[in-house]
């Protein structure tokens, strides 16, 4: 159901016919611009929200903030699309000092400290294995989605775990979808910054059979549309949903809901996040920009 101009039209997994059984889960929605933050410091505010496998922390910064992890179980990601943000990151497997923004960092397990300085927004992504972070979320308890299998971490990175930095200043390329990076636990697609509203005649309704899509909006106004399958048991039917959100916000699009998104303002920035990484994106040649650092999973994850 993709428009002909959408690179995802070539993904074979989206064309499979499937039947589903309920009960189904609705979206988790965080309209951060309209809701109180979960954390507040001198010159910064942070909103935290979870889905099945992922915790998102969105920091609005005008000053300096430090976020430390002790004995972190697995890799996590930190990124900012704002060039004016600076990073100081210390880990047991590498450090960076006064590093410019518009980068994505993969932070290794163990002890780490991330200090961010300047003005802008910074996103932190962790798995829900970090129970202390789950407890801080606006939605610490969510319904279990029977369509999502147990979490499986992907293979260890080439050369072992260490601090890695990836430049987000990547030119667009015909046939490639966004700017995709993965680690052992998470995949991020930093979509290009759009400068006009989306053409409503070229939307992309589709569904995922067994994983959530976390849509993090950093700039602009968005509308998400969701529709669930009908089963033989009408008690399981859910009404269509139309979610309107300003930025910043998070909307969790659950399987197996058919979904598509409109951006309705002139300047917009959206990031799609998956945990664990998507196999279909990972097997498209050239789509994952750091694929040489992270081997494919040994068994297919849909």
UniProtKB/TrEMBL annotation:
<dbReference type="InterPro" id="IPR014710">
    <property type="entry name" value="RmlC-like_jellyroll"/>
</dbReference>
<protein>
    <recommendedName>
        <fullName>5-deoxy-glucuronate isomerase</fullName>
    </recommendedName>
</protein>
<feature type="region of interest" description="Disordered">
    <location>
        <begin position="1"/>
        <end position="33"/>
    </location>
</feature>
<feature type="compositionally biased region" description="Basic and acidic residues">
    <location>
        <begin position="1"/>
        <end position="19"/>
    </location>
</feature>
